[in-house]
## 1
Amino acid sequence: MIASVGCLRRGNRYHGRDASDSVDEMNDSAAEAQKQSWWQRLTGGLKRSSSALGGAISDLVSKRKLDAETLGEIEDVLIRADLGLETADRIAAALREGRYEAAISPEEVKAVVASEVEKTLAGVARPLVIDAAQRPFVILVVGVNGSGKTTTIGKLAAKFRADGRQVMMAAGDTFRAAAIDQLKIWATRTGSAFIAREAGADAAGLVFDAVAAAKERGADVLLIDTAGRLQNRSELMSELEKILRVIKKVDASAPHAVLLVLDATVGQNALSQVETFQKMAGVTGLVMTKLDGTARGGILVALAAKFKLPVHFIGVGENVEDLAAFSARDFARAIAGLDGTE
């Protein structure tokens, strides 16, 4: 079954220098408002993580000098916040330099935390680049049960459609009728083409048809959903390998991106998920969802330090606007509990 629903609306065009200047000003204003709106959503979404971390830091350093005992306790707090041992060590070393045996404020500690976290994340904060020469640009979306794969695909489709791209979605999670229905709703909502089979159908066969159909229809992007699979279930991971082989039968260069969607609430378990999916599926980038539902958002820092995989998007809520391109600086300041992005 292939369906295509809706279309993009074209905005009115303005002519003349004055009108052009006016449009530029409106665009600048809208961009600034959007940036502020995202910062508010990001800080709100990371509130549980930043409050847990900031509260513990404040309790430790208030009315105390930065001695060996305090540094050790700060490091313990950072590790419990899932930032990882490597990053915690670096933060402790940065705090020790020039501040040892001196009074220090919670804000000073948070500033150092933000700075060191940003250093860890700077190398992995990379946008997902759609290569126009690869048409369709095939994106395979993988992850465990409940990580938010299908919703993430819908949000990505909305973003790509807003950029004027023709999108097709493939309901490769054939185990769950609900997943097929959910993806169809997103296709309708975003005006994307949609391909599916009945629940229980062979997922690899569906994916083969999807890549072929996307080529025939001239789609710019093909987003392929897959069934949620636990990283310790070898038979399910083998099926994922089969899907990858089938895709290459239609297009030897595909998939052009393999996105692993991670649920932030699982904390340290995300490390084993990345390790397994990277080995089995050749993960090229990460999307972390549900940061608004946990105090364990620091796990993203530990993932960056260990695997150094690109982090393309993070999610802090259910709406389309709650999934945004990952910014190392914004995330670092938000999780440290600092105000603004300056």
## 2
Amino acid sequence: MRALSVRSIGTRPNPARPLTLAAAALAGVLVLAAHAIAQEPAAPQAVPAAQLQNAIGKLGDLDYATRTDAARTVRRTPGSQAVPALMQAVAEHTDGYVRYRALVLLTGFNDPRTTDAMREALTSPNDRLRAVAYSFFEHNPAPPIVPLLLTALEKEHAEFVRPALVRALAAAAKNLTASAGADLAKVRQALVLDVSRGEDFFRSVVIEALGDYRATYAFDAITAVAKLVGPLQDDAALALGKLGDKRAIQTLAEMQKSAPRAVQPSITAAVCLLGVDCSMQEAYLTEMLSFAGKNQGFQELLRSAAAGLGALAVAGHTEALDTLFAVGVPATDDSTRAPIALAVAAVALRNTALMMPWLEKNTSPEVVALLAEGVEMLDEDLDKERFFAMARRTYWDAPQGASTRTLMQALIGKLDF
């Protein structure tokens, strides 16, 4: 599962939020009920031009409620009205944070003009805009953009920007055909080279992206990292499982004999991803998560077990999602809830097709609260906006009284979008 980025870039103070995850969980029922009273509109609603411009201008307000209400107004405006206003803000607004938020919100309208705005953002001096553009082209690979991404790789070293660029290149390598020739070879060469050079943080990002995009061309490089005891061993083990290359089974079997205990959940998840005794591997991960959640001093093991189960859920294993919620919902200690909430949120953003049917069968406020905690902690603003846009469209399309509409209403209210 992707190495999650918690709130940092693009964040402004949020004094209105609860101070702890436990407090958020305890308040979940009341907050959800309060939001449910404010029923969502049945369709996008046009607003006066001045009101829309005022809302866009408040996207960067220091007050959480103010900027959240502003974003809500923009999201519920028809695309024919919102898109031109957002594009103008991205190009002209004097507040760099407003430009950033406008660019993120623009992605929720699925307008073809968004691609042009993203292409321009690739060369923006505003690092937030560049990060959004890279993330956009991860989800919307475009061969003509690849040379620009390769050029950026040589100079983009910001800790919260380069990861988005790396993932865009990994997605490009998966989507480019053999006819791309030199570009495909350059992308693969650059990514494989970065597996073994640079700071561990950046190497971790590369290894994970290669695993997520099943880059079997990087098998040897990732295997070499997996064999070395160190901070990247768990990333490499999990990536080997994601690659789906059965040659990794021997390496993983050897790692199970010698790797530190905190790495074992990643190895176990990888073995399951390769289709070997999956029920047994899931049982082990469940045992590790439950044990670490009940006993102090095993935080590293807890994080690893939650990440392993999250990776399985992203890959389509519903049982892993069952375990995450079963352990996370009743937990009251932040050190236990946080890693599980992050894993749950990652599943929601990366395998929404698995998460939504699961939530329809498990709609308790406590379940929604755990998901909301994880989403709040994430800094994946473009991925979150994609999730929000899907939820709004699903709500608008669902018949009145349908369980799907009820779920979307609950998510919209609790996640504040």
## 3
Amino acid sequence: MDSKAYIFYGPSGSGKGTQAKLLIKYLEEKRKKAVLYVETGQRFRDLLDSGTYTAKMVREVIDKGGLLPAFLPIWTWTDFFNEKFNGTEDLVLDGLCRRPIEAPVLDSALKFYKIEKPTVIILDVSSDSIISRLQERGRTDDTADYIKRRLDWYEQEVIPTIEFFRNSTDYTILDINGEQPIEKVHQEIVNKINL
């Protein structure tokens, strides 16, 4: 059974992490094979805790509200593939390849690993719902200004990245109504991936 890849997109607060974990459980049960979960946010947190010179530089950029150079997010998942992927697992990718410059790199990696017809799962959630969800979770960094900047960044950077995959016949694109309750979102994903 060939490896499959599922790439999650959606703004902060759209439920990507939750849906990725539900999909992993479903894939493990249905396909009876291991699933690797690549979540770049955790990889960055691990990097920041490493105490390396790179970690120090990353902290400086983040503290100033800057954008990290493209090589760092690319490194987080290419390093993961190199260390963990043995060619037999399915891949669930969450929070990676979020800038247009990164899309051809991910595309080349999936082709290198001979993963055919990866699935891009886009959780469609309105800006109003995102604002409400993020404010409800009560994290101190979820200020109105910060949420607005994240939504603007999603529109300016992530949407054009998604278009790279939309414009390629090599990918299956699933637009999912992320406004539904968690279980219904999961059910829509499962129905549409059609294993």
## 4
Amino acid sequence: MTRRRLLHARSRRARRRALGPRALGPRTLAAVPLAAFALAGAGCSVKGGDNANLIVGKQQFVAKCGSCHTLARANTKGIIGPNLDEAFRQGLAEGAGRSTIRGIVEGQVLNPNPEGAMPKNLAGGATLRDIAAYVEQVAARGGQDSGLLATAVAPAGAGKPAVETGGKLSIPASPTGQLAYVTNKATATPGPVTVEMPNTSGVTHNIAVQQGTNGPVLGASSFISRGSASVKVTLKPGTYTFFCQVPGHRQAGMEGTVTVK
């Protein structure tokens, strides 16, 4: 090995050690390098490095990480943790290697900051490999996922409108972990209504009912991560808003409209 190559190799190793598995804060991740732009602007294949499954990676990222992190291509809008697109953007612009993103994601999940919000044992093995591979390929990349990746996760709130029957209105939280209900539309008849929110996602949500879009809150359920919560309200003809009261969830789009007539 020539002296120039030896110095280059040492510099590269030192840079990797310096990046290491540090806290996923915006300033830290902004310095992460990314390379390999062959896929830029062309969508992503369904297979990543080490035969990772990017479809599963996207689904598991949404389910396990999306309630805390924003990642544009996954359409997640969590605000508890760093925005992963912004966190890695500077490194991309500086031409560093994309594989570094994968290493840091895996490192942070396996060794979360004890003072941070990321739980222990969030993911491991093949699941973590798939999640990290998906983030590696899409972080800070414009456009939208294409092909099978585009339909890997159902759009938030895209389900059929909920319909009140016999005084009960069921509006489940999204089972995928998205900050959304399965639908953003519902209809009901005037009178007492029990609004139920089944939740199988593992993410904490509730459901509240508000008169109009800025009126008083008529009632709210308890907060649950699994099970079913409900709230009883009396509705007159008009339009109401249902939404989640967990900080940041309504802002991320977890709300919808009830039309009473």
